[in-house]
Amino acid sequence: MKLSDLRPCDSCGGPISPQFHVVRYSIALIKPQVNQVAAMTLYFGSLALGELFSPEDNVVTVAMDEDEFKKLAIELLICQECYLKGGINLALLAEKRLSEIQKGK
Prior knowledge:
- It is a single chain.
- α1 (34-44) packs across α2.
- The chain is built from four helices and four strands, in the order ββααββαα.
- The chain has two domains: 1-26 and 73-105, no CATH class; 27-65, no CATH class.
- The protein is elongated.
- By secondary structure, the chain is α+β, with helices and mostly antiparallel strands.
């Protein structure tokens, strides 16, 4: 991470130095091919065998792992004080950060 990429804490808006936390938040999706794995699992009576004999066994896509979904990944910077006091609402912070990204901040 470059120094120019740093910004205030996404939770409180305060400074993040000298120590802070980076939270990478992404969406995970279950593909429709999960039905193939489920059917094979029922047939064989074992998830391991169902995945083995299914045409596609990777049925969960994590947004940060796929190039086409990289735009859905959110990176939050949390100062040490906010991290330690807890009570952070990740969904709210992710929405706020997404709005800032769309505005070009």
